[in-house]
Amino acid sequence: xxxxxxxxxxxxxxxxxxxxxxxxxxxxxxxxxxxxxxxxxxxxxxxxxxxxxxxxxxxxxxxxxxxxxxxxxxxxxxxxxxxxxxxxxxxxxxxxxxxxxxxxxxxxxxxxxxxxxxxxxxxxxxxxxxxxxxxxxxxxxxxxxxxxxxxxxxxxxxxxxxxxxxxxxxxxxxxxxxxxxxxxxxxxxxxxxxxxxxxxxxxxxxxxxxxxxxxxxxxxxxxxxxxxxxxxxxxxxxxxxxxxxxxxxxxxxxxxxxxxxxxxxxxxxxxxxxxxxxxxxxxxxxxxxxxxxxxxxxxxxxxxxxxxxxxxxxxxxxxxxxxxxxxxxxxxxxxxxxxxxxxxxxxxxxxxxxxxxxxxxxxxxxxxxxxxxxxx
Length: 376
Ligand SMILES: O=C(O)CCC(=O)C(=O)O
Hints:
The protein has six helices and 18 strands. 40% of the residues are buried. The protein is an alpha+beta fold. 22% of the residues lie in helices and 19% in strands. The protein binds 2-oxoglutaric acid. Residues 225, 227, 241, 253, 255, 261, 302, 304, 314, 316 line the site of 2-oxoglutaric acid (AKG).
């Protein structure tokens, strides 16, 4: 790792960046995926269509004819059922705000490891810097910085269902770059607006009022993650993020131009690359939404492949409910002919359990919604 002094970073670094590996120059066994989960083990990627569906949200910015809004809602419903993933353009997040966030993230990651370690995540507070996240018990080739949108955030003190203790936690902010905190706050406020817009459209697509789900986010645990994937010496063995489904309601993701995100297509289980579109956001349905919709909508598995040449940056916003929310199929969507597919679970405990398993390697698989599935 580089040994530059933190004070050298008070001014903006040169725009010419040299990718460097924060994870080391060789690959440790902890990063190596089982054979069946390694990237590039699928033969016919060439036959896959070019990209996931793109939805233009521009009509929300002007008084739209009801029929056009209906068309948009219908399209969103279709892609959330068939893919669980789509991109949005003309989404209302100012490009300047995104660019400021991207620049600040790069500057943060350019700092020496000892500087980043000053804001390290720990077992008590899940926010801050972390370079050894495990997905499905295999270490990811990445470093992350997480911050809550609303602070202080109230979270369960443990994943133990009988432990009622709560903990109040604040974000950890690095000293450098000096504008980091302000830029993060500005960025997440804009992305949160987009998340509420999409939440409303998805609710409408289920035949519900646009604000039906808003009450679950009063004390939301949403957070933004700044992902950095350094070049990897063995990209055929490791993954930037192992295969997983997102736990929350929806995710709003900005990716740079490098590429590497792949979604497992619902129709045939094939891994499908999501080609970067400048300035677009990728939206994906998370577990909570799949459960609320009683499996009408699909939370798709996805992963990130890395490469040996280029570093990559991405910024997911995980739209997470308040800790006290019970997640179960919505009453309006179940009836005698469509009984609930899940029993209720507490969001805070699910969050705490996922966080423990992300924090370090464990003997058991991390928590999944399938554990709450009812056999109808
Ligand atoms: O980097 C990406 O494109 C996706 C990141 C992701 O899936 C995650 O952080 O959970």
